[in-house]
């Protein structure tokens, strides 16, 4: 480990010790859910730790708030995606008589899809979510993220390939075992 890496880790560690409780309290007012608060706060510091060449921060709380707010937006988009998939599933069967086991399988499949999307780098994932959840066009996404339309196209191709791979391994719209035998 280089001296710069150690210095960076020490700086983020100091920020964590000084501002983690404050960030959790701020997020708790916004989110309410204790587990979501801790997840967002931890991911905020993880992103700081993973950022290369962190320069001295004059306003650490402003930076932490900005990162956390982006993570909250991603959480909300992910929840919208889950709702959208659930609604599509209900359209296939408008009168669901799903057992708790079937609902558990659906929830687990959605969580696996979420973990699949988490494997994408930030801008690729953001591009995909802005397109699929928010319905933005490629030019709108490019303006929103400050990237070229070509990058949007490349990112969408990459994210769609990952989703296709996920779908091949885990189709969401398959009939539960109990209904197939009927």
TrEMBL record:
Query: What Pfam family does this protein match (any one)?
Result: Sigma70_r2
Per the database record, which ranges form the RNA polymerase sigma-70 region domain?
Answer: 15-80
Q: What's an example GO BP annotation here?
A: DNA-templated transcription initiation
Q: Which UniProt keywords apply?
A: Sigma factor, Transcription, Transcription regulation
Tell me yes or no: is Transcription regulation among this UniProt entry's keywords.
yes
| Residue ranges of domain RNA polymerase sigma factor 70 region 4 type in the record | 111-159
What GO MF annotations does this protein's record show?
A: DNA binding; sigma factor activity
Q: What family does the database annotate?
A: Belongs to the sigma-70 factor family. ECF subfamily.
PANTHER family membership: RNA POLYMERASE ECF-TYPE SIGMA FACTO (PTHR43133), RNA POLYMERASE SIGMA FACTOR FECI-RELATED (PTHR43133:SF63)
Q: What is this protein called?
A: RNA polymerase subunit sigma
């Amino acid at each position: 480990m280089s001296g710069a890496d150690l210095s960076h880790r020490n700086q983020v560690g100091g920020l964590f010790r000084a501002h983690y409780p404050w960030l959790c309290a701020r997020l708790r007012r916004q989110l309410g859910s204790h587990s979501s608060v801790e997840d967002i706060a931890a991911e905020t510091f993880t992103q700081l730790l993973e950022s290369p060449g962190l320069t001295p921060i004059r306003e650490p709380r402003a930076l932490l708030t900005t990162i956390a707010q982006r993570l909250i937006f991603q959480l909300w988009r992910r929840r919208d995606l889950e709702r959208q998939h659930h609604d599509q599933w209900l359209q296939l069967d408008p009168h669901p008589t799903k057992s708790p086991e079937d609902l558990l399988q659906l929830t687990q499949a959605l969580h696996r899809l979420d973990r699949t999307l988490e494997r994408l780098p930030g801008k690729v994932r953001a591009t995909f979510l802005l397109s699929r959840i928010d319905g933005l066009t490629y030019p709108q996404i490019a303006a929103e993220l400050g990237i070229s339309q070509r990058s949007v196209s490349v990112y969408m191709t990459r994210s769609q390939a990952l989703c296709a791979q996920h779908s091949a391994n885990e189709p969401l719209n398959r009939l539960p075992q109990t209904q197939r035998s009927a």
